[in-house]
Specification:
By secondary structure, the protein is mostly helical. It has one domain. 77% of the residues lie in helices and 0% in strands. The protein has five helices and no strands. Helix 4 runs antiparallel to helix 5. The chain starts with a helix and ends in a 15-residue tail after the last helix.
């Protein structure tokens, strides 16, 4: 299971990184041409969330510095994909909608699996260990 989570996380990170960087680095004219009525600012916000989410899928878990951020990033990307799916339904892009559903489901799976490793773990900050 551990290897599967890392593979899916890596693939999602690459996909979200490329999609987010396109939304951030493309010219306003290019985004307007492909946006089908979606405001460019909304695409820029989604791009920022996708890039940060892609980093969050890998970096905290790999470095073991605040690894709780990895399932939070996956959960955030799930929300982004829910919004993208709703937007695709509204503008009638049903083929792209399937892609956003698949990416959202995979991100949700990563979030669930990563959150499960924290079940039953209690952190007692400031209390000395007994025993």
């Amino acid at each position: 299971m551990k290897i599967a989570v890392w593979i899916v996380s890596g693939l999602l990170a690459v996909a979200f990184l490329f999609a987010g960087l396109f939304k951030l680095l493309a010219s306003t004219a290019d985004l307007e041409a492909s946006a089908q009525g979606v405001p460019v600012i909304l695409l820029r916000i989604a791009g920022t969330a996708e890039v940060l989410g892609a980093i969050g899928l890998i970096l905290p878990a790999a470095t073991r510095v605040l690894p709780i951020l990895t399932p939070l990033a996956a959960a955030g990307l799930t929300l982004v994909m829910i919004g993208a799916t709703i937007t695709n339904v509204i503008i009638g892009e049903y083929a792209i909608m399937l892609q956003t559903i698949v990416m959202g489901v995979l991100a949700a799976w990563v979030a669930v699996v990563r959150f499960r490793q924290y079940e039953g773990v209690r952190h007692h900050v400031g209390r000395p260990a007994l025993g």
